[in-house]
Design a protein that fits this description.
By secondary structure, the protein is of the alpha/beta class. The chain has one domain (5-186): Peptidyl-tRNA hydrolase (Rossmann fold, 3-Layer(aba) Sandwich). It is built from six helices and seven strands, in the order βαβββαββαβααα. The protein has helices at residues 23-35, 70-81, 114-123, 144-148, 154-176, 179-186; strands at residues 5-8, 41-43, 46-53, 56-63, 88-94, 102-105, 130-134. It has a seven-stranded mixed beta sheet, with helices on both faces. It is globular.
Length: 192
């Protein structure tokens, strides 16, 4: 697999910047900082940073369509850059994974994630790699929307910052070598 596009899911706007639902954007921001990517262009309903990883031109994207309509941006990104779904990795938050964990998979269902549901609907396939970042679940089931749209509390910030650093290394390995190779590193429980 020749990965050329990394798409972090989230919601645009300052009010959502540090929320759990924006962890996909946070990972893209970590890559931008690590790679010293230049100013973005507004392309295909997204902010797009062009950079190089392992000698390959790679696009880092943050959709501007809001989480539940992420599919529109992803569809446009794939069309704009002439890429197949297998050439991208989508990065997003996952309530079913404990905070401090991540899972890289080559394909799969949405798992109930509205942003991923939208992508599958727009591009017509579940066959694309994805990096799920664990945010844990709220204590009460009815608080899910409030929970995902709230910022990480101070005691969780250190953990999520370590996860983001590990995600940056994971994605870099996936591009430089392959997602299959990166899975062993990415899916380990320990952070450091």
């Amino acid at each position: 697999m020749d990965i050329r596009l990394l798409v972090g899911l989230g919601n645009p706007g300052r009010e959502y910047e540090k929320t759990r639902h924006n962890v996909g954007f946070m990972v893209i921001d970590g890559l931008i900082k690590n790679l010293r990517a230049k100013k973005p262009s507004e392309d295909a309903l997204s902010l797009v940073y062009k950079t190089r990883i392992g000698g390959k031109e790679v696009f880092l994207a943050k959709p501007l369509t809001y989480m539940n309509n992420s599919g529109a941006a992803v569809y446009n990104l794939l069309e704009e850059y002439g890429l197949s779904p297998e050439q991208m990795i989508v990065i997003y938050d996952d309530l079913d994974l404990p905070l401090g964990t991540m899972r890289l998979r080559l394909k799969g269902s949405s798992g109930g994630h509205k942003g991923v549901e939208s992508i599958i609907k727009y591009i017509g396939t579940q066959n694309f790699p994805r990096l799920r970042i664990g945010i844990g679940r709220p204590k009460k089931k009815e608080d899910v929307v409030k929970y995902v749209l709230s910022p990480f509390p101070q005691e969780e910030e250190k953990v999520i910052n370590q996860v983001i650093k590990k995600a940056v290394r994971c994605l870099t390995r996936a591009i430089e070598i392959s997602p299959q190779y990166a899975m062993e590193y990415c899916n380990r429980q320990e952070l450091f």
